[in-house]
Protein backbone atom coordinates (compact mmCIF):
# COMPACT_ATOMS: atom_id res chain seq x y z
CA UNK A 1 0.00 0.00 0.00
CA UNK A 2 1.24 3.46 -0.75
CA UNK A 3 0.69 7.21 -0.64
CA UNK A 4 0.92 9.50 -3.66
CA UNK A 5 0.72 13.17 -4.49
CA UNK A 6 0.70 14.94 -7.85
CA UNK A 7 0.91 18.69 -8.48
CA UNK A 8 0.19 20.53 -11.72
CA UNK A 9 0.49 24.26 -12.37
CA UNK A 10 2.23 26.81 -10.15
CA UNK A 11 3.38 25.20 -6.92
CA UNK A 12 6.24 25.01 -4.44
CA UNK A 13 8.11 21.78 -5.17
CA UNK A 14 9.60 21.73 -1.67
CA UNK A 15 6.09 21.85 -0.18
CA UNK A 16 4.98 18.92 -2.35
CA UNK A 17 8.00 16.88 -1.30
CA UNK A 18 7.32 17.66 2.35
CA UNK A 19 3.69 16.59 1.89
CA UNK A 20 4.93 13.22 0.65
CA UNK A 21 7.32 13.00 3.60
CA UNK A 22 4.49 13.76 6.03
CA UNK A 23 2.33 11.00 4.53
CA UNK A 24 5.22 8.55 4.59
CA UNK A 25 5.73 9.23 8.31
CA UNK A 26 2.04 8.95 9.19
CA UNK A 27 1.71 12.61 10.22
CA UNK A 28 -1.41 13.19 8.10
CA UNK A 29 -3.02 9.75 8.51
CA UNK A 30 -6.57 10.58 9.60
CA UNK A 31 -8.03 7.59 7.70
CA UNK A 32 -9.30 4.29 9.12
CA UNK A 33 -6.69 2.10 7.43
CA UNK A 34 -4.28 0.05 9.57
CA UNK A 35 -1.21 1.28 7.65
CA UNK A 36 -0.03 4.70 8.75
CA UNK A 37 3.65 4.73 7.75
CA UNK A 38 5.09 3.96 4.32
CA UNK A 39 8.84 3.35 4.67
CA UNK A 40 9.65 0.85 1.89
CA UNK A 41 10.89 2.97 -0.99
CA UNK A 42 9.96 6.12 -2.87
CA UNK A 43 10.02 7.77 -6.27
CA UNK A 44 9.59 11.14 -7.97
CA UNK A 45 8.57 12.06 -11.53
CA UNK A 46 8.82 15.53 -13.03
CA UNK A 47 9.29 17.47 -16.27
CA UNK A 48 12.71 18.96 -16.96
CA UNK A 49 13.41 20.83 -20.19
CA UNK A 50 10.63 19.01 -21.97
CA UNK A 51 11.62 15.54 -20.80
CA UNK A 52 10.18 13.22 -18.14
CA UNK A 53 12.70 12.56 -15.39
CA UNK A 54 12.44 10.05 -12.55
CA UNK A 55 14.24 9.39 -9.30
CA UNK A 56 13.90 6.25 -7.20
CA UNK A 57 15.12 5.12 -3.82
CA UNK A 58 14.75 2.50 -1.13
CA UNK A 59 14.19 3.06 2.57
CA UNK A 60 12.32 6.02 3.96
CA UNK A 61 11.54 9.18 2.06
CA UNK A 62 12.29 11.23 5.17
CA UNK A 63 15.88 10.00 5.08
CA UNK A 64 16.20 10.63 1.35
CA UNK A 65 14.59 14.07 1.23
CA UNK A 66 17.67 16.10 2.27
CA UNK A 67 19.64 14.57 -0.63
CA UNK A 68 17.13 15.57 -3.37
CA UNK A 69 17.98 18.61 -5.49
CA UNK A 70 14.69 20.49 -5.25
CA UNK A 71 15.74 23.04 -7.86
CA UNK A 72 15.53 20.34 -10.56
CA UNK A 73 11.88 19.76 -9.68
CA UNK A 74 10.65 23.34 -10.09
CA UNK A 75 8.46 22.79 -13.15
CA UNK A 76 4.72 22.59 -13.76
CA UNK A 77 4.27 18.88 -13.00
CA UNK A 78 5.53 16.78 -10.11
CA UNK A 79 4.42 13.41 -8.73
CA UNK A 80 5.79 11.66 -5.64
CA UNK A 81 5.17 8.12 -4.40
CA UNK A 82 6.02 6.60 -1.02
CA UNK A 83 5.58 2.90 -0.49
CA UNK A 84 4.57 0.32 2.08
CA UNK A 85 5.36 -3.07 0.55
CA UNK A 86 2.37 -5.41 0.82
CA UNK A 87 4.55 -8.49 0.36
CA UNK A 88 7.93 -8.87 2.06
CA UNK A 89 9.46 -10.28 -1.13
CA UNK A 90 8.74 -7.06 -3.01
CA UNK A 91 11.40 -4.88 -1.40
CA UNK A 92 14.12 -3.12 -3.36
CA UNK A 93 14.77 -0.46 -5.95
CA UNK A 94 13.13 -2.49 -8.73
CA UNK A 95 9.81 -2.23 -6.88
CA UNK A 96 9.96 1.53 -6.29
CA UNK A 97 7.52 3.60 -8.32
CA UNK A 98 7.10 5.09 -10.86
CA UNK A 99 7.13 1.96 -12.95
CA UNK A 100 7.40 2.33 -16.72
CA UNK A 101 6.50 0.41 -19.84
CA UNK A 102 6.56 1.08 -23.58
CA UNK A 103 3.47 0.31 -25.65
CA UNK A 104 3.62 1.13 -29.35
CA UNK A 105 4.98 4.65 -29.67
CA UNK A 106 4.14 5.62 -26.08
CA UNK A 107 6.32 5.46 -22.99
CA UNK A 108 4.04 5.07 -19.98
CA UNK A 109 4.85 5.73 -16.31
CA UNK A 110 2.68 4.74 -13.37
CA UNK A 111 2.45 5.16 -9.62
CA UNK A 112 0.00 2.79 -7.90
CA UNK A 113 -1.63 2.68 -4.48
CA UNK A 114 -3.20 -0.67 -3.68
CA UNK A 115 -2.83 -4.41 -4.07
CA UNK A 116 -4.18 -6.28 -7.11
CA UNK A 117 -3.25 -9.93 -6.57
CA UNK A 118 -5.53 -11.28 -9.34
CA UNK A 119 -4.69 -8.97 -12.26
CA UNK A 120 -1.97 -11.38 -13.44
CA UNK A 121 -4.73 -13.71 -14.63
CA UNK A 122 -5.61 -11.22 -17.37
CA UNK A 123 -2.08 -11.60 -18.73
CA UNK A 124 -2.21 -15.40 -18.97
CA UNK A 125 0.41 -15.81 -16.24
CA UNK A 126 0.55 -18.83 -13.95
CA UNK A 127 1.11 -16.68 -10.87
CA UNK A 128 1.72 -13.10 -9.83
CA UNK A 129 5.26 -11.79 -9.53
CA UNK A 130 4.65 -8.05 -8.88
CA UNK A 131 1.05 -6.90 -8.99
CA UNK A 132 1.71 -3.24 -9.77
CA UNK A 133 3.86 -4.08 -12.81
CA UNK A 134 1.17 -6.50 -13.98
CA UNK A 135 -1.48 -3.80 -13.51
CA UNK A 136 0.52 -1.38 -15.65
CA UNK A 137 0.99 -3.97 -18.39
CA UNK A 138 -2.69 -4.87 -18.33
CA UNK A 139 -3.82 -1.26 -18.61
CA UNK A 140 -1.46 0.10 -21.28
CA UNK A 141 -0.48 -2.75 -23.59
CA UNK A 142 -2.11 -2.19 -26.99
CA UNK A 143 -3.55 1.09 -25.66
CA UNK A 144 -2.88 4.66 -26.71
CA UNK A 145 -3.36 7.85 -24.69
CA UNK A 146 -6.56 8.45 -26.64
CA UNK A 147 -7.95 5.20 -25.19
CA UNK A 148 -7.51 6.41 -21.63
CA UNK A 149 -11.05 7.36 -20.72
CA UNK A 150 -13.12 6.65 -17.64
CA UNK A 151 -15.13 4.04 -19.54
CA UNK A 152 -11.98 2.29 -20.75
CA UNK A 153 -10.51 2.08 -17.25
CA UNK A 154 -13.80 1.00 -15.68
CA UNK A 155 -14.27 -1.73 -18.29
CA UNK A 156 -10.73 -3.02 -17.77
CA UNK A 157 -11.17 -3.19 -14.00
CA UNK A 158 -14.55 -4.91 -14.36
CA UNK A 159 -12.73 -7.85 -15.94
CA UNK A 160 -10.34 -8.31 -12.99
CA UNK A 161 -11.32 -11.02 -10.50
CA UNK A 162 -12.20 -9.85 -6.97
CA UNK A 163 -9.55 -9.80 -4.29
CA UNK A 164 -7.81 -6.48 -4.87
CA UNK A 165 -7.83 -3.51 -2.55
CA UNK A 166 -7.34 -0.54 -4.89
CA UNK A 167 -6.32 0.46 -8.41
CA UNK A 168 -5.65 4.10 -7.55
CA UNK A 169 -2.95 5.29 -9.92
CA UNK A 170 -1.18 8.18 -11.56
CA UNK A 171 -0.47 7.42 -15.22
CA UNK A 172 1.91 9.70 -17.11
CA UNK A 173 2.94 10.08 -20.75
CA UNK A 174 4.92 12.86 -22.39
CA UNK A 175 1.85 14.98 -23.16
CA UNK A 176 -0.81 13.87 -20.68
CA UNK A 177 -1.19 12.50 -17.18
CA UNK A 178 -4.16 11.01 -15.37
CA UNK A 179 -5.16 10.44 -11.74
CA UNK A 180 -7.48 7.43 -11.49
CA UNK A 181 -9.62 6.68 -8.43
CA UNK A 182 -10.80 3.08 -8.09
CA UNK A 183 -11.48 0.76 -5.19
CA UNK A 184 -13.98 -2.09 -4.90
CA UNK A 185 -17.33 -1.06 -3.48
CA UNK A 186 -16.92 -3.40 -0.51
CA UNK A 187 -13.55 -2.11 0.65
CA UNK A 188 -13.33 -1.91 4.46
CA UNK A 189 -11.07 1.17 4.15
CA UNK A 190 -12.78 3.65 1.79
CA UNK A 191 -11.02 6.66 3.33
CA UNK A 192 -7.57 5.11 3.01
CA UNK A 193 -8.24 4.27 -0.64
CA UNK A 194 -9.79 7.60 -1.68
CA UNK A 195 -7.77 10.31 -3.40
CA UNK A 196 -8.36 13.96 -2.54
CA UNK A 197 -8.24 16.91 -4.91
CA UNK A 198 -7.40 20.55 -4.22
CA UNK A 199 -7.89 23.26 -6.87
CA UNK A 200 -6.31 26.68 -6.32
CA UNK A 201 -6.55 29.02 -9.31
CA UNK A 202 -4.57 27.23 -12.05
CA UNK A 203 -2.92 24.74 -9.68
CA UNK A 204 -4.23 21.23 -9.00
CA UNK A 205 -3.09 18.89 -6.25
CA UNK A 206 -4.29 15.29 -5.99
CA UNK A 207 -3.14 13.42 -2.92
CA UNK A 208 -3.79 10.20 -1.03
CA UNK A 209 -4.39 12.32 2.06
CA UNK A 210 -5.47 15.97 2.51
CA UNK A 211 -2.41 18.06 3.36
CA UNK A 212 -3.19 21.07 5.54
CA UNK A 213 0.05 22.81 4.55
CA UNK A 214 -1.29 23.02 0.98
CA UNK A 215 -4.94 23.81 1.70
CA UNK A 216 -7.54 23.81 4.45
CA UNK A 217 -9.80 20.83 4.98
CA UNK A 218 -12.72 22.62 3.32
CA UNK A 219 -10.63 23.25 0.21
CA UNK A 220 -9.85 19.56 -0.33
CA UNK A 221 -12.49 17.43 -2.09
CA UNK A 222 -12.77 13.66 -1.96
CA UNK A 223 -12.68 12.22 -5.46
CA UNK A 224 -15.63 10.07 -6.42
CA UNK A 225 -14.96 6.39 -6.87
CA UNK A 226 -14.11 5.65 -10.53
CA UNK A 227 -13.33 9.34 -11.12
CA UNK A 228 -10.62 10.19 -13.66
CA UNK A 229 -8.78 13.51 -13.74
CA UNK A 230 -6.65 14.42 -16.75
CA UNK A 231 -3.66 16.79 -16.74
CA UNK A 232 -2.36 18.34 -19.97
CA UNK A 233 1.41 18.43 -19.42
CA UNK A 234 2.74 18.91 -22.95
CA UNK A 235 4.80 22.07 -23.37
From TrEMBL:
Name this polypeptide is given: Class II glutamine amidotransferase
Gene3D superfamilies, sorted: Glutamine Phosphoribosylpyrophosphate, subunit 1, domain 1 (3.60.20.10)
PANTHER family: GLUTAMINE AMIDOTRANSFERASE (PTHR42824), GLUTAMINE AMIDOTRANSFERASE YAFJ-RELATED (PTHR42824:SF1)
InterPro entries: EgtC-like, GATase_2_dom, Ntn_hydrolases_N
Keyword Oxidoreductase among record annotations: no
Residue span(s) of domain Glutamine amidotransferase type-2: 2-235
Pfam families, A to Z: GATase_4
Amino acid sequence: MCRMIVAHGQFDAAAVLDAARAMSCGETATHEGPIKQHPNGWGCLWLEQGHIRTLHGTGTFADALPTIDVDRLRGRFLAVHVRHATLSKNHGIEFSHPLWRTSGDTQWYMMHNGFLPTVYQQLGMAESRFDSAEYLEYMVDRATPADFTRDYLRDKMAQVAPGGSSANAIFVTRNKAWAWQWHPDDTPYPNYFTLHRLQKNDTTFISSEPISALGTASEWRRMNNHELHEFPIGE
